[in-house]
Prior knowledge:
The protein has helices spanning 89-96, 101-106, 111-120, 123-139, 155-170, 194-211, 229-241, 258-264, 278-285, 295-301, 308-313, 334-345, 349-356, 358-362, 390-395; strands at 5-16, 33-43, 46-52, 62-65, 70-73, 75-77, 142-148, 175-183, 217-222, 245-250, 269-272, 290-293, 319-320, 381-384, 402-407, 410-411. 55% of the residues are buried. It is an alpha/beta fold. The model has no long low-confidence stretch (mean pLDDT 97). It is 36% helix and 22% strand. Strands 1, 2, 3, 4, 5, 14, 15 and 16 form an eight-stranded mixed β-sheet that branches. It contains 15 helices and 16 strands. Helix 5 (155-170) packs parallel to helix 6 (194-211) and helix 6 (194-211) packs parallel to helix 7 (229-241). N-(iminomethyl)-L-glutamic acid (NIG) is lined by residues 110-111, 114, 221, 249, 252, 297, 323, 325-328.
Amino acid sequence: MGNSILIRNISHLTGIIDGASKLVKGNDMGRVRSISDAWVLVSDGIIQDFGSMLTVPERADHIIDATGASVFPCWCDSHTHIVFASGREGEFVDRIKGKSYEEIAAAGGGILNSANRLRQMPEDLLYENAYRRLQEVISKGTGAIEIKSGYGLTRESELKMLRVIRRLRQSTEVTVKATFLGAHAVPSEYKENRADYIHLIINEMIPEVAGEGLADYCDVFCDKGFFTVEETDLILTAAARYGLKAKIHANELAVSGGVQVGIKNNAVSVDHLEATTQVEIDALKNASTIPTLLPSVSFFLNIDYAPARAMIDQGLGIAIASDYNPGSSPSGNIPLLMAIACNNMRITPVEAFSAVTINGACAMELEKETGSISKSKSANLIISRPGVTLDSMVYAFGSDHIDKVMIRGKLV
Ligand code: NIG
Ligand code: FE
């Protein structure tokens, strides 16, 4: 018995890219190729072929009838922190009562609160909690994901987080990219001698992380109250010497200089950008670094949204990611994220779709493998419920529009 699967009678096969996949920019973000009344043939975990029902293959080993449904490529979530010990509901309620995210962090809450809890949690339990979150986001259509460390902030606990990420990678069909984020916050024990913590990151953590092959990227939270431009530059330069490419958290809380130092270090992406001016947009125009926006953070923390509209209108290609984490975005639900993005950033569902599929793939350097309906890419497919289109999925926010998710040719 062979293993080919034919998905037939698809109302809208959306997100087709013919030819080489690369970052989609500017006006092109608002264009998507679809075929109505379509089929897709999958075997050996990859998309073998697709077309209009006028040319449907006569035979396959298994048939899925998708009458009325849309089929999309799975989402590519290029920025998450799904390895954490527990939620921070208390801080959420404190914020509702008037405290700011920065005040909570300065008082030892926030990232340091998560670090205290994570340090105490055994690796197996941490893994089980993260695995549950991973399964949850896969059921919402995520087919490739980047996961960061950064709630350990000691050598042992950062390595513990990265080992959990490695176990997640080994136990799922979804492609996982790992990012070392030792420079997420200065831990309280180094409050008075932050240079020593940076020394520890550069001279002990990075060599060990790279030596064990535990990360693809190195990230720094370059922002007001966290790491300075100079510190960020030192850390990213050291990481590059060990083969870890740069990513960056920048301009969430203030115009931090993080975009520029990210570009200087050839960062694959600079992420957040809620506090962004025309200067940063201009800098990004001359760079290959991808601006990655995290609109659920703006929703959850009640802060400004990154200027997605201006970026696209000025020709940039943006990615959008969930930032799933316990402090600023306790959700990895991409259809809901697209609704938040469209309504608040005034971008269209097609632009949001480009940002969470092919451009998210580019922000993880996975564009050859996933992020579109293309021959010989992984068969990472979302089959919607009948009657759902891209526009209606984003419009009817919060409903469950997904019927089936296929990862590498297997229904999950
Ligand atoms: O991407 N901004 C920095 N780091 C995370 C949030 C961390 C936290 O609050 O736990 C973010 O928003
Ligand atoms: Fe983040």
